[in-house]
Amino acid sequence: MARLERYADLIEPWAESVSRRLIDTLEIADDAMWRDRSQRISAGMRELMAGSQGQVTRSIISEQVKLFKSLPLQAADRVYDIQNQAIEAVVSGKRSSALMQEIMRTGEVTEARARTIARTEVGRASTAITQARSTAIGSRGYIWRTAEDSDVRHSHRLMEGQYVDWSKPPTLDGMTGHAGQFPNCRCYCEVVIPEE
Questions:
Q1: What pLDDT shows up at residue 110?
Q2: Measured distance CA(34)–CA(29) in Å, rounded
Q3: What is the pTM of this model?
């Protein structure tokens, strides 16, 4: 037994060396495998962006540019309306204090509109990209999920947990779209991935 113990002690450096070489070989193979997969995923993402998802992204950017460009035009329309109100006030002999309050609200209205556009467009873009990615891997739909708080609209609360086909967006409150695509909507798509 003592001889076996001494022999075990003698081969310990050799065993460590063999084990270290084995681990190093596995690490190199593992690293190469992950590097290869990463390159394939990257190439796939570039291909996806060049294809349907890229078209979706470019379309979203174009629509958002139009919306944000509309802000100064809407502000100008509001100023024009206030000017007409001013003329009417002078003609009818009204006080200027009510008109002054309307003028002061112009900045608030424009800021609130910009905030609504930003929230809505982030949701629309996120959902459109999710849809493009999902359909590219064969997903046919998703489960509608809400923020589950008191601010969720009644129509959206009724959609919680419902399956929605990508090709058949629901119509809620007179608007058609997927989760996250409605004004100020905080809902999202829980993608249903097809089983292989």
A1: 66
A2: 9
A3: 0.53
Domain layout of the chain by residue ranges: 1-50, 59-192
Residues contacting residue 89 through CB under 8 Å, at least 6 positions apart: 95, 96, 98, 99
149, two tokens: 């708080």
Residues 6+ apart with CB under 8 A from 167: 140
DSSP letter string over 70-86?
HHHHHHHHHHHHHHHHH
- Number of residues in the chain: 196
Tokens standing for residue 133 = 């990615």
Q: What does the block give as tokens for 113?
A: 């509109």
Cα separation, 143 vs 130, whole angstroms: 13
Region 61-81: what's the mean pLDDT?
A: 67
In what helix (H) or strand (E) does residue 139 lie, and over which residues does it extend? none
